[in-house]
């Protein structure tokens, strides 16, 4: 979902396959999926009628110039403004684009496997797919450097397999992208780690997204970066090329949707800033992912707030404070059953009092309560003596975010001693001592 796409072809509604209209489909990363038609699917006589007859189409089918099948889902139209034009120009903005297959809805069970790429996943789970061997001559100088890798072998390239339920298995896999150039002057070699979702029964796009979205959030927590997938490739049991030896090579079907956050690695990634990497949690990984995915409804809004709070922002506001405190309050309400914010905070601070980076923060509960009430309920400032703003509110938010991270780590299966090690081993500024900010005032 990183590269721009432009497909020229004919477009039609599924119920009217004989009424085709020429047009151009354009996907602009992080911006839009748009279809521009020379004409309209309706009976408008001119562009004026088409302009004011905006329609919503659940599904639009297309056949491109290279014979690729296209499905567009949830399309909203707008007409052209050139009223002197003898024909209408209709533009649709679409939510989902499927390249390679016609389907009628996101709920249609159509695919048995998905291969998902996350730019951050390769950094988080280093693939070790390339081998680099150096040879020295008798003078102990480099004589030869050999880089090698295995041809595709499912057993060797599988890092981990997790059974989520009776129908779903998650594979962490490693691999190599190799492409030569003219005369092999500048060959390109890249190793990667990806996520594969295998389904025993054919499943819908919604089923796959219900795994992909939580996995993005898990990876965001693990790396303390906003993680998004860059490519989703789906596979249909009926779309393949069969070799002479009987082996089936399944065709890739692309799923594309607009992501308004950057979906490539935004800056130089420093793994020592991660909260933890794969090798740190390798033994617990199956249990953690199974719990994260199967109990997603209980924790979903809380982890969404946490991911929102770790985004790299140019300025801080009271909204950032409210995001964190509401997530903490929600966690305690759902999983600690406390009845008042003061009791919630007392309980959870005591629970993690043995964590070094929580212990030294010395969170003032009254400051949290008064600030939350002021910014959330717009109470009069004179009635609350412990309201913070500016740098003080930023520092308080910084402390509470660390507390929220401890809550999420415990939820997915870490005990306090492990949480302490994880926080102490990360060099992320999100986990830095609050004294750094307090001393800089």
Low-confidence stretches: none
What is the rounded distance between the termini?
43 Å
What would the principal axes of the Cα set say about the shape? globular
How would a crystallographer describe the biggest sheet? Answer: 6 strands, antiparallel, barrel
> What is the rounded Rg?
26 Å
Overall average pLDDT: 87
Helix and strand element order: EEEHEEEEHEEHEEEHEEEEHHHHHHHHH
The percent range for helix content is: 25-40%
Count all strands and give the number: 16
By DSSP (H or I, 4+ residues per run), the number of helices equals 13
Sheet with the most strands: spatial strand order: 1-2-3-6-5-4
Based on secondary structure, the structural category is alpha+beta
Percent of sequence in beta strands: 25-35%
Descriptive notes:
With 441 residues, the protein is α+β, with helices and mostly antiparallel strands. Helix content is 32%, strand content 29%. The protein has 13 helices and 16 strands. It has helices at residues 47-51, 119-124, 154-157, 205-223, 285-294, 296-309, 318-335, 341-351, 356-359, 365-377, 390-411, 416-425, 435-439; strands at 5-12, 21-28, 32-38, 56-64, 69-79, 89-99, 111-117, 131-136, 142-148, 158-165, 168-179, 188-203, 231-235, 240-242, 248-250, 253-257. Strands 1-2-3-6-5-4 form a six-stranded antiparallel beta barrel. A two-stranded antiparallel ribbon has the order 8-9. Strands 14-15 form a two-stranded antiparallel sheet. Helix 7 (318-335) packs parallel to helix 11. The longest helix has 22 residues, at 390-411. It is globular, with a radius of gyration of 26 Å. The relative contact order is 0.10.
